[in-house]
Design brief:
Radius of gyration: 23 Å
Helix content: over 70%
Order of helices and strands: HHHHHHHEEHHHHEEHHHHHHHHHHHH
Largest sheet: 2 strands, antiparallel
Number of helices: 23
Structural class: mainly alpha
Number of strands: 4
Strand content: under 5%
Strand order of the largest sheet: 1-2
Length: about 575
C-alpha cells in the first residue's frame, strides 16, 4: 500500500467519523448552547478562564498530542503496518474520541470538575480517593518520560563511537526557539487578555511571533548539556504548574497549535508529493523478539488511538475554558481525530524507510525517524532537507513540552484534591491540610519524584507509562459510563472500549511486574527501577479497586426497580 492510499483512507475514515459518529453522540447526550458554562460560572482568573474555541482547541490538541502519536506507531511498526493502521483508526474513533468527548462532557456538566470529582459524585468518596492517587502516580510517570524526551531534543552535544563530543546544530536551534516560545507566550497572554481584537488579528499576531522565534532559533542555536536541560525543564514546569492559565498555558498552547497544525499540513502535502512506498510488511508476527502483539500493540500506541491522559486534560483544564457547550465536540472529539491523523503520518514515515535505512542515515530515535522522513518527502518539492528536519524536530519537542505544561498542573491538582472533599470547609482546614493542599507544596513533591524517575530514561519508563496510561482510560470510561447511566443518558458506546482496555491493561501491567520482579531476583534493582516496580504494583492495585467500584455501580439496578422488588 502506498503512502497516499493510507492517507486517503485516514482522511475519509476520520472525517466521516467526526461528521457522523461525533454528531450522533452529541445529539444522544444533548448540549445546551444557552447554558452558562463553568468557565463563566466558576471564573477565577487562574484555572477557570473562558476562551475562544480556537484557543481551547489549541490547548487541547497541543496538550494531548505529546510525543505519543509519533513514538507509539513507529515503535509498534515491528508488528507490520496493517495492525497499526487498523488500531489507530478503530481505536481513534470508537475508543479515544468517545472517551475524550465523554470526559469533557461529564466535566462541563459538573462545574468543570475533574474525573476524580465525577467518581466521587457518582461512584463514591473512596473511589475518588483511589482514583486521584492513581492519577497522581501516573502524572509523575508522564512528567518523567516527557521531560527526558524534551531534554533529549534540546541536548546540544553528541558523543560518537570514538568518544568525540560534537555540537548538534538542529537541537541547539530547537532549544533556542522553544525558550523564545515561552517568553513570547507570556507576552501573548497579556495581549489576549487586555486587548479586544478579533480572533483573526490575534491569530496573525501569534503567527508573527511563531515565525520570529523560528528565525532567531535557526540563527542563534544554544548548546546546553542533557543534565542541565533536565534541571531547566523542571524549573519551567514548576512555574507553569502554578501560573494562571491565561498567562502561560493558554497562549503557549495557542502558539504551538499553529506550529503543530502547519507541521501536519506540511506532512500531508509531502506524502501526496512524494507518494512514498510502504517498505514494511503488512504483518510480521504475533510475537516479535519476545513482545506479544496483545497487549503490547495496544499499550504502545496510546496517543493516536486511546489515551487515558486525554481524559485528564479534557476534564482537568480544557473543560474549565469552554465558552459554550457546542464547542465541546470540536475541542475534544475533533482534537482526538486530528491526533489520529498525526499517528497515521508517523506510520507512513517509518514505512517509507527500508530495513536499516533510517539507522544508516543516523536516525536512531523515533522523533528523528519521523523528522527525517518528512524532510525526505518535502525535499521532492524543493524545500531544504536540513531546514525541514530542524523544523519538524522543533514541532516534536513542542508536542512534548506542551504536554508537560498540562500534566504537571493535573498532577498538582490531583494531589491537592486527594486531601479535599466536596464538603470540605477550606477556611477551617487543619494545618496538615493547609500544607498538603498548598499548590507550591503539591507541585514540588510531584516534580521531585518525577525528576528521580527521569534519571531512568524515557525508553525504560515508556512501557510502564503506556500500561498505566491505558488503565487510566479504563477508569475514565467507567466513570463516564456511570455518569451517563445516573443522568439517564445512553452510555452503551463506552462498554466495549472499557472491557477491551481492561483486558489489555491488566495483562500489560502484570507482565511489567513479572519482568521487574525477575530483574530484582537476579541482579537487583537500582533506584529508578525500584520506583518503577513500586509504581507498577500500586497502579495495578489502585486500578483494579476503582474499576471494581465503578462496575458495581454500572451493574446496580435502578432504585425504582429495587423498590418494586422489595414491595
Amino acid at each position: 500500500m502506498s503512502g497516499i492510499m493510507m492517507m486517503v483512507i485516514a482522511i475519509v475514515v476520520l472525517g466521516g467519523a467526526y461528521l457522523l459518529y461525533g454528531r450522533y453522540l452529541q445529539n444522544k447526550w444533548g448540549i445546551d448552547p444557552k447554558a452558562k458554562t463553568p468557565a463563566y460560572e466558576m471564573e477565577d482568573g487562574v484555572d477557570y478562564v473562558p476562551a475562544d474555541t480556537n484557543v481551547v482547541f489549541g490547548h487541547q490538541f497541543a496538550s494531548i498530542a505529546g510525543a505519543g502519536p509519533i513514538n507509539g506507531p513507529i515503535q509498534a511498526a515491528i508488528f507490520g503496518w496493517l495492525p497499526v493502521l487498523l488500531w489507530i483508526l478503530i481505536g481513534g474513533v470508537f475508543f479515544g474520541a468517545v472517551q475524550d468527548f465523554a470526559s469533557m462532557y461529564a466535566s462541563v456538566k459538573n462545574k468543570g470538575r475533574t474525573i476524580g470529582y465525577i467518581i466521587e459524585a457518582y461512584i463514591g468518596k473512596l473511589g475518588k480517593k483511589l482514583f486521584l492517587l492513581f492519577c497522581w502516580l501516573f502524572c509523575i510517570l508522564v512528567v518523567a518520560a516527557f521531560a527526558d524526551v524534551v531534554a533529549g531534543t534540546f541536548n546540544g552535544f553528541a558523543t560518537n563511537d570514538a568518544g568525540e563530543v560534537t555540537k548538534v546544530v538542529a537541537n541547539g536551534a530547537v532549544a533556542t526557539t522553544s525558550m523564545l516560545f515561552i517568553f513570547e507566550a507570556v507576552g501573548l497572554g497579556f495581549f489576549l487578555k487586555y486587548t479586544k481584537f478579533n480572533k483573526w488579528v490575534n491569530t496573525a499576531f501569534a503567527i508573527v511571533l511563531l515565525v520570529a522565534a523560528i528565525v532567531l532559533g535557526l540563527q542563534f542555536p544554544m548548546y546546553v548539556s542533557l543534565g542541565t536541560w533536565h534541571i531547566i525543564i523542571f524549573v519551567y514546569i514548576l512555574i507553569a504548574s502554578v501560573a494562571p492559565v491565561w498567562a502561560l498555558l493558554q497562549p503557549r498552547d495557542y502558539l504551538n497549535s499553529y506550529l503543530l497544525i502547519f507541521m501536519i499540513v506540511g506532512a500531508v502535502i509531502g506524502v501526496f508529493a512524494a507518494n512514498p512506498a510502504c517498505n514494511l510488511q503488512a504483518f510480521t508476527s504475533f510475537n516479535v523478539d519476545g513482545q506479544y502483539m496483545f497487549p503490547i500493540l495496544f499499550v504502545t500506541i496510546a496517543c493516536g488511538a486511546v489515551s487515558g491522559f486525554h481524559s485528564l486534560v479534557s476534564s482537568g483544564t480544557a473543560s474549565k475554558q469552554i465558552k459554550n457547550e457546542k464547542n465541546m465536540l470540536p475541542v475534544s472529539f475533533g482534537a482526538m481525530l486530528m491526533e489520529s491523523m498525526l499517528a497515521i503520518i508517523a506510520l507512513i514515515a517509518v514505512a517509507s524507510f527500508g530495513q536499516g535505512e533510517a539507522a544508516a542515515q543516523g536516525l536512531t530515535t523515533q522523533p528523528q525517524i519521523f523528522a527525517g522522513a518528512i524532510a525526505n518527502f518535502l525535499s521532492v518539492i524543493g524545500l531544504p532537507h536540513s531546514l525541514v528536519f530542524t523544523l519538524i524536530n522543533l514541532a516534536v519537542s513542542a508536542f512534548a513540552l506542551t504536554s508537560l505544561d498540562s500534566v504537571a498542573r493535573v498532577g498538582r491538582l490531583s494531589f491537592q484534591e486527594f486531601f479535599l472533599d466536596s464538603d470540605t470547609d477550606e477556611k477551617n482546614m487543619s494545618s496538615f491540610q493547609k500544607v498538603v493542599t498548598n499548590k507550591y507544596f503539591a507541585t514540588i513533591i510531584t516534580l521531585v519524584l518525577a525528576y528521580l524517575l527521569t534519571k531512568v530514561g524515557y525508553a525504560e519508563i515508556w512501557p510502564l507509562f503506556g500500561s498505566a496510561n491505558q488503565l487510566l482510560s479504563v477508569l475514565a470510561l467507567v466513570a463516564c459510563a456511570v455518569f451517563l447511566k445516573k443522568t439517564k443518558r445512553q452510555g452503551w458506546m463506552l462498554w466495549v472500549p472499557m472491557v477491551f482496555m481492561m483486558a489489555v491493561t491488566f495483562t500489560a501491567l502484570g507482565m511489567t511486574i513479572v519482568k521487574l520482579s525477575k530483574a530484582f531476583a537476579t541482579t537487583g534493582l537500582d533506584l529508578g527501577n525500584s520506583l518503577q516496580l513500586i509504581f507498577a504494583v500500586l497502579l495495578l492495585i489502585l486500578g483494579v479497586l476503582v474499576a471494581i467500584q465503578g462496575i458495581k455501580k454500572l451493574l446496580e439496578k435502578p432504585e425504582a426497580e429495587k423498590a418494586a422488588k422489595r414491595a
